[in-house]
Write a structure and sequence with these properties.
Helix content: 55-70%
Number of strands: 0
Mean pLDDT: 84
Shape: elongated
Order of helices and strands: HHHHHHHH
Radius of gyration: 17 Å
Number of helices: 8
Distance between the termini: 43 Å
Largest sheet: none
Low-confidence stretches: 1-25
Amino acid sequence: MRKHENKSTRETSGSLNRKAEDPDAHQVIIPIEEAKEFLNNHFEQIPSVEIWGEMMGYKTRQSFWQKFDTCFDESPQKAYIRVKKRILLEFLRTNPQCKNKEAARIIHHKNGNELYQFVITHFGYTPTKLKQKVLNK
């Protein structure tokens, strides 16, 4: 059983796997309407939007992006980044003395340099300044 697979997924995937013989068929296990909840509940196992779509049962990146955009009127990338930001802020609040590499790993980045780029891009501060702002609130 894969990490992200649970009993209900295994029970329902049997009949869906039969449809997968059709190359255009999608093996959608989790309804797109549950995508945001799924991301929030399983973020630690979802290192990218592509993996998120795969875990939900979409065979192609394009099909996941189109369904998600139609359902939520935003890209899955935008939703994923919002969750990453929230999780990072929560981690910094509860771990004020953490090293940047620890914070990076929490949001699926390899090192402090990747965290730095993410924080500058999405918050407009350095990680050190972001930590200070989080702790002052």
